[in-house]
Specification:
Layout lengths: L1 H7 L10 H9 L1 H6 L12 H36 L11 H36 L6 H15 L15 H32 L7 H23 L2 H7 L3 H31 L8 H27 L14 H36 L18
Helix pairs in contact: 4-5, 4-6, 5-6, 5-7, 5-8, 5-10, 6-7, 7-8, 8-10, 8-11, 10-11, 11-12
Length: about 375
């Protein structure tokens, strides 16, 4: 509610904008309609805000589904486990429950993350390049498409479930899931083209980490598409490939390096131009995290291809080589974070660090943009 209320909010003294048009622009409906108009309608909501609006819809739906699933689990836990009541487990159809649960969870994994990440990429690309985003109307439409796709891809989590409909496995699990490769590919192309058209660009920390984040998703999304194939799913389901090549690379490389890029952009802004303590440490942070994240996912993926299952303890050391190498790569990421944290603390000083937690003396009204004449 707060997100959409903010979108339609008009500060005192500003010209009132039509709420319906603001919402249409935020949701991407204006972008879709522009494909069928001779003259494009101007977008009233900036693209990064539009991404937040679309991601927020998935957040709300996810919260409802997961809360409902959690309440159901709580009822059975309290009733059967604590109160000793005899609750029939067949009151809730297990397959229906799994479909609803994965529909809600996938709104985060396959919708919310990709929508928010793409919106962040677009914002970072515009800040780094100092240029307008390339193919902005298509970018807005792609975000709308990604939001819709996120509502219909849940069945790829149930492709090994014998009771799941084959129709849903093929349509939702394979065909619709493949669209994520298209929507993510559009985002990557738009960002890289925006950066390329602004050349020459200095290889700043924010640019390096943005490119690292893009690389992470370029590796993780195809890995997810591979395991969303009925044939490959028989081999990869419930193995370390899923958590390694797909989830870890997406989160630890794609998402995390994107966040690091945003931090390096915001750091001089939020500290009134404070310079980074050491560029050499920033470079070391980048390489350790990139190599460690990709390496960790790769070695876990190799173990999965060799048959190592998730949630399984192997007492005889069958996969020790893979796991030791994966752990070393994980340690590289931990060292990278410590280097990053040290670099930030040394940049702002201990006084600046503790000052973060003290009450601000700034008049927030002075932070509002002034009305244009």
């Amino acid at each position: 509610y707060n997100i959409f209320k903010t979108i339609v909010y008009t500060p005192a003294g500003w010209e009132k904008q039509p709420s319906v048009e603001l919402l249409k622009s935020a949701l991407g409906l204006t972008a879709i309609a522009n494909f069928f108009r001779k003259k494009e309608t101007k977008h009233l909501v900036p693209l990064p805000i539009a991404a937040i609006a679309r991601g927020t819809i998935d957040v709300g739906l996810n919260a409802i589904v997961i809360m409902t699933a959690g309440v159901l689990i709580l009822i059975y836990f309290v009733g059967s486990g604590l109160m000793g009541l005899s609750l029939d487990h067949t009151w809730v159809d297990a397959l229906l429950y799994k479909n609803i649960f994965w529909w809600g969870l996938d709104l985060v994994a396959d919708g919310l993350v990709l929508v928010f990440v793409a919106g962040t990429w677009y914002l970072l690309a515009m800040i780094i390049s100092g240029k307008d985003l390339y193919m902005q109307n298509i970018a807005r439409a792609a975000l709308f498409l990604e939001m819709v796709v996120s509502w219909t891809v849940w069945s790829h989590h149930l492709m090994s479930d014998q009771g799941q409909s084959n129709f849903l496995k093929v349509l939702s699990g394979e065909v619709v899931t493949a669209f994520e490769l298209i929507t993510q590919g559009i985002a990557v192309f738009i960002v890289l083209t925006t950066l390329y058209k602004a050349k020459p660009l200095k290889m700043t920390n924010e640019l390096k980490f943005l490119l690292g984040g893009i690389l992470g998703f370029m590796l993780a999304v195809p890995a997810g598409i591979i395991q969303a194939d009925l044939g490959m799913n028989r081999v990869l389901h419930n193995t370390q490939w899923i958590i390694g090549n797909h989830v870890n690379v997406a989160v630890l490389v794609g998402l995390t390096m994107t966040l690091y890029s945003a931090i390096y952009v915001l750091f001089p802004i939020l500290t009134n131009g404070v310079k980074l303590y050491s560029q050499k440490l920033a470079n070391l942070h980048f390489w350790l995290h990139l190599i460690g994240g990709i390496g960790m996912g790769a070695f876990m993926g190799m173990a999965g291809l060799d048959g190592m299952l998730r949630r399984t303890i192997y007492y005889n050391g069958e996969y020790n080589t893979y796991m030791v190498l994966s752990a070393l790569c994980g340690a590289m990421m931990m060292v990278a974070f410590v280097i990053f944290l040290y670099n930030i603390i040394m940049s702002i000083g201990l006084k600046g660090l503790f000052g973060i937690y003290t009450k601000s003396q700034i008049d927030t009204n002075s932070c509002l943009a002034q009305k244009k004449d």
